[in-house]
């Protein structure tokens, strides 16, 4: 029995290798599942036949997480998807809103540096070590995941912490619980659960996924619901009249008939989905980049030289620097290529019969683009596909590097009608996270190690062990003193 995403993906990938094919069909119950590892075929699905392969599967996990299909990412093609997709693109993630939220993102970029700085300058017994001779241990998974969580909480709820938070800028108990619940949802979302393929098993929860998802949703709702409900009340009572964050924006959107565009249930479900969409890709990419760089210090040096050249040592990296940080962006692209956070893209479902790459694909098939195999396809990535080499993404003409990959030679933000509307925000978070870590600190392996073990976890594609490294501040002390 296929118990989770990873064992199912391993099985499908093995099958494709044995059959020496870039497109394979397996039947799970009544469903045809089509796995793809060729960019040309992937483009046929998501560009040429985008109108056909535009839906999403019905599954126990997506139903629970989306509040009964009230959201965007997880919702099958139809009116609800159209309404929410339009709302997200136009009202939440538009260029104007992105600029409006700039100060909130910067607050969190500063907090990231404050947190890491405090980790390196606090000795084991808790006293302050401002000489910074030895540096200090930093758990990069915690720093990266909580930076992403802080950014999305700040732009949606206008707050970093649900409770007191950590004194050093780090997460408090509540944020740790919240983040763990988000990652639990991500782990079981579209995990191959038998009940999705054998309908009469529904409700039995044989693999225990349903309970895990429900428990995680309870935690998320515990934190979100009171904030959303309280805010709706404030607007109703006229105590709030001006939008300060995306929750306010969602509450104040109007339908042409002047009623609210979104119900409280839609707002709650959409917020959870936006949080899920934000936290995993950037944090996983940053952790893998730093891990790869610790093993290849010449890459870290190149990236450090770039930020020093572009930013200097008198201030922190700003968003306006991002266009010039091409090497850092090449590193992020290389992490998306070689170390995607999930084995497959979000599944696409066909609305009618179709022929793709000379194969007949029946209506209702689920198409899984393999993030792992697209990025490592030796026909596409001829130069040592398994080696982390950011240089492969630099343009000969020195043109700007972007994190999107429209030819699907690896999968970052995908393309087409279901392509990611969070491209700008997601790219900004990823590059800012990496650039601030590299510019603000020098990094080395702990004294008892010379190399990082670059092994994926048994249960997901994150590093098997959270990356812990030694950080030392590398800029003048006053640059770290934020207001
Ligand atoms: C580095 C960061 C990110 C990456 C790599 C990424 C990647 C993706 C991918 C691969 C998809 C699925 C595309 C498909 O079905 O073919 C997707 C969908 C989506 N993403 Fe992102 N994403 C990122 C950040 C964000 C952020 C920050 C948001 C919003 C806050 C966001 C919102 C969405 C939404 C709403 C969809 C669903 C689109 C639909 O089904 O219509 N993403 N993203």
UniProtKB/TrEMBL annotation:
InterPro entries xrefs: Cyt_P450, Cyt_P450_CS, Cyt_P450_E_grp-I, Cyt_P450_sf
Keyword Oxidoreductase applies: yes
BP term (GO), one: secondary metabolite biosynthetic process
Top-level taxon in the UniProt lineage: Eukaryota
UniProt keyword annotation of Protease present: no
GO molecular function, one term: iron ion binding
PROSITE patterns from the UniProt entry: CYTOCHROME_P450 (PS00086)
Pfam entry (one): p450
Keywords for this protein: Heme, Iron, Metal-binding, Monooxygenase, Oxidoreductase
Gene3D superfamilies registered for this protein in UniProt: Cytochrome P450
Co-factor(s): heme
Binding site for heme: 420
PANTHER family (UniProt xref): CYTOCHROME P450 98A9, OS09G0441700 PROTEIN
Family of this protein: Belongs to the cytochrome P450 family.
Annotated protein name in UniProt: Isoleucine N-monooxygenase 2-like
């Amino acid at each position: 029995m296929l118990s989770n995403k990873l064992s199912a993906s391993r099985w499908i990938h093995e099958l494709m290798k044995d059959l020496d094919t870039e497109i394979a069909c397996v039947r799970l119950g009544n469903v045809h599942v089509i796995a793809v590892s060729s960019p040309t075929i992937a483009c046929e699905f998501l560009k040429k036949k985008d109108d056909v392969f535009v839906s999403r599967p019905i599954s126990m996990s997506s139903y629970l997480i989306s509040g009964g299909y009230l959201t965007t990412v997880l919702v099958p093609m139809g009116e609800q998807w159209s309404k929410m997709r339009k709302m997200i693109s136009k009202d939440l993630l538009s260029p104007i809103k992105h600029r409006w939220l700039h100060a909130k993102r910067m607050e969190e970029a500063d907090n990231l540096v404050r947190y890491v700085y405090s980790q390196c300058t606090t000795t084991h017994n808790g006293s302050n070590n401002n000489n910074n001779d030895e540096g200090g241990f930093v758990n990069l998974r915690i720093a990266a995941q909580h930076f992403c969580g802080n950014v999305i909480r700040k732009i949606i709820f206008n707050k970093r912490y649900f409770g007191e938070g950590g004194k050093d800028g780090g997460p408090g108990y509540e944020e740790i619980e919240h983040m763990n619940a988000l990652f639990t949802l991500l782990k079981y979302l579209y995990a191959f659960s038998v009940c999705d393929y054998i309908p009469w098993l529904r409700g039995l929860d044989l693999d225990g996924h349903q309970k895990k998802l429900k428990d995680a949703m309870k935690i998320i709702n515990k934190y979100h619901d009171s904030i959303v409900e309280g805010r709706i009340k404030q607007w109703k009572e006229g105590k709030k009249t001006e939008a300060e964050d995306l929750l306010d924006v969602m509450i104040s959107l109007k339908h042409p008939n002047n009623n609210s565009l979104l119900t409280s249930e839609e707002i709650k479900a959409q917020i959870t989905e936006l949080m899920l969409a934000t936290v995993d890709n950037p944090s996983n990419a940053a952790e893998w980049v730093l891990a790869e760089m610790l093993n290849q210090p010449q890459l870290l040096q190149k990236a450090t030289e770039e930020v020093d050249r572009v930013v200097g040592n008198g201030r922190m990296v700003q968003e306006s620097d991002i266009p010039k940080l091409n090497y850092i962006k090449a590193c992020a692209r290389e992490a998306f290529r070689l170390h995607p956070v999930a084995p497959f893209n979000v599944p696409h479902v066909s609305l009618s019969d179709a022929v793709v790459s000379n194969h007949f694909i029946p209506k209702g098939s689920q198409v899984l683009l393999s993030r792992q195999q697209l990025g490592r396809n030796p026909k596409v990535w001829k130069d040592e596909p398994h080696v982390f080499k950011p240089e492969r993404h630099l343009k000969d003409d020195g043109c700007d590097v972007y994190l999107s990959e429209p030819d699907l030679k690896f999968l970052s933000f995908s393309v087409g009608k279901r392509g990611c509307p969070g491209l700008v925000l997601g790219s900004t978070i990823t590059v800012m996270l990496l650039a601030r870590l590299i510019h603000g600190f020098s990094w080395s392996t702990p004294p008892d190690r010379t190399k990082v073990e670059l092994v994926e976890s048994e249960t997901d594609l994150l590093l098997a062990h959270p990356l812990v490294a030694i950080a030392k501040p590398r800029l003048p002390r006053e640059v770290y003193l934020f207001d």
